[in-house]
Amino acid sequence: MSPESLLVRTQKGREEIDERRHHLAPALRHVLILIDGATRLADLAVKGERIPNFRESLDALIAQGFVTEDGAVAAGGTPKARLIDAAHRLLGKNAGKVVSKLEESADAIDSLKVTVESAAKLIRLTIDEGKAVEFAEAAKAILGR
Amino acid sequence: MELTLGINVAAILVMLYCLWTVISLGKSIPGGVVGRQWRTLTVLVVLFTIGYFVTPFFSHLPAEMINLIVAAIFFFGAIYVLITIRLIYRIIEELAG
Predict the structure, then answer these.
(1) Where are chain B's structural domains?
(2) Closest approach of A113 to chain B, Cα-based (Å)
(3) This prediction's pTM
(4) What is residue A2's three-state secondary structure?
(5) Annotated domain spans of chain A
(6) What is the chain A residue with the closest CA to B94?
């Protein structure tokens, strides 16, 4: 991983955050909370500098499948591909309509911003208000403020 | 009398269609503002459906019971309308925002 790598929570990681389903140790959970899908590894290291053994905890989370590197970023994907990846990651099986909207959007950043706004409304109305905020934040990180 | 029964049966059929619609459409609305209200509306439609099924048997029920059932249907009907109006307004607000 490079300092530019973007780490994201896996399904297992989201289950742990939402429901504490995997009974993660508090120290690891603390690090998992910092993984917001929008902060690059270099900035994460700054955020986590006060946490003892931050890097080791991060490696443990990756090894245990709670966190992974954002595939689209790692592959140098387009903003649209990264947005679609973020939608899949955040919304899981409910991502269908949002992904369709993104796929139909033009590739220009301004067009994608309009589509993201519309998609966030759709998520807020029909999927989950919290996930709408997370998606909007992830999109801002991808598209810029 | 036959006209009343006919209307009751028609009402039950329409309500069964409503029940099927609200359940099948609800599957595509897992949550969010609409999803949450949709679940409440589904419960109300179930209640209405049960209430409507009783109507053909009104002639066999005591007057007090009939009044209670009708009052309950009116009350939950009013709640249904209130939820629907607020939901529509919330959607408009969201789309306009």
Answers:
(1) 2-96
(2) 15
(3) 0.65
(4) coil
(5) 7-72, 77-143
(6) A121
Number of Cβ within 10 Å of residue B33's Cβ equals: 21
Task: Please report the ipTM that was assigned to this predicted complex.
Answer: 0.76
Residues of A in contact with B33 (CB under 8 A): 124-125, 129
What pLDDT, in 10s, does the model give residues A37-92?
Answer: 777 788 888 888 888 888 888 888 888 888 887 765 555 578 888 899 889 888 98
Nearest to A122 by CA among A142, A104, A106, A110: A104
For residue B94, the chain A residues in CB contact (below 8 A) are 121, 124-125
In this structure, which amino acid lies at residue B87?
L
- Chain A residues near residue B31 by CB distance under 8 angstroms: 126-128
Task: Determine what percent of chain A falls in helix, strand and coil, rounding each to the nearest 5.
Answer: 65, 5, 30
Q: Which position has the token pair 């209405």?
A: B48
Max Cα distance, chain B (Å):
54
Q: Is A123 exposed, middle or buried (0-12, 13-18, 19+ CB in 10 A)?
A: buried
Tokens of B4: 């009343």
Phi-psi region of B83 (alpha: psi -120 to 50; beta: other; left: phi over 0): alpha
Tokens of A32: 């998992």
Q: CA of A129, closest CA in chain B: separation in Å?
A: 5
Put simply, whether A95 touches B (Cβ < 8 Å) is no
Strands A7-9 and A67-69, by their bridges, are antiparallel
